[in-house]
Request: fold
Amino acid sequence: MMNLCRLLQEIKENPVMYIDKPSITHLDSFVRGWYLSRINHFGLNPQGYPMEGFDEWMQERVKTTVSQPWSEIILFLYRTERNAFYRFFEEYEKFLKHKDDSKIQESEEKAGPTKDDSKFRQFDIYNEILKGIKKRPGIYLRTSPITELDMLLRGYSLARREVGILPTEPEREFEGFQSWIEGKYGINSGQSWSKIILFYSVDEHEALQKFFELFEEYLNRNKSVDVDENCG
Reply:
């Protein structure tokens, strides 16, 4: 199973493969999704997370007492998403040097799966994540909600694939959402579902609201077909 440091290195070398482009916001959401799976299903605690304390360390770097996530601080310092993305790796490397080597090693070891992954296998992407985001999006998402949602789910899915967990039925159903969106809008450009929805929305926040409307329509598509056939 890939540890966080190795994953970050791969994202640095090929950001398009993982997060579409060099973007500090995309990176933040992707990593949070990846880590979310370990909190919920692998028993990883905050002390076992290699980035634990990074928010506070960055806040100290800029001498602020206001609680800010590391991604927003780095973006503030380096102005553009692209610059902030690449400068993140420099800042994170400095941060790691401030951590005791033994503690870093212990953190990596704690990132392994527990013996009981039954809860992980029963994960329901719609009920456990999307319902929570729909109810209280601010807890999970920040300035670019539809894009961050996409990255969050990508990171979560990657974490599952790393340990060979087969997709559940709700997950397999979600995989069809991409092609359904392409068909609905008549687009076959290779753009992700989040980019397509955003293109037809005023902004990121409207796009998130529209996503839930479209996803609900997508989930109910077969029910509509069944009703029409029965009426006929």
